[in-house]
What we know:
Helices cover 33% and strands 35% of the residues. It has one domain (6-82): Alpha-Beta Plaits, CATH 3.30.70. The protein is α+β, with helices and mostly antiparallel strands. The protein has a 5-stranded antiparallel β-sheet with strand order 2-3-1-4-5, covered by helices on one side.
Amino acid sequence: MVSPEHAVIVTYSLSGNALGEPQERESVHALEKRLTTAIEAAGAGELDGDEFGGGEAVLYAYGPDASRLFAVMEPALRAFPARPGHAVLRYGEADDPTAIERRIDL
C-alpha cells in the first residue's frame, strides 16, 4: 500500500500590488531555494512551487509525513520576514475529504 501524500502549504502576505513588490518576489524565490536544499537533504519530500496573487505568496511542499516536512521547513519559514504568514499541514491526499488539516501561524 502506498502512503498518502501529505502537504505543507505556506502563505505569506505581500505588500504593494496583487503580486507584491519585485523585491518580495525575489525574497520568496530565495526562500524556496533554501527550503528545497533543506527538504532534499533531509529526504522529507519536495518543494513543488509557488503561486503569487491576491496580495499573497503561496508555497507548496509534498511528502509522506506533513509533520516531518514542516519540521525541516520551519526554521527558514520562521526566519522569513514577511508577515502575517501561516502554514497548513494536510495529513492526506488533496481529494480526501477526511484528511486532517492543522494551521500553524508563523
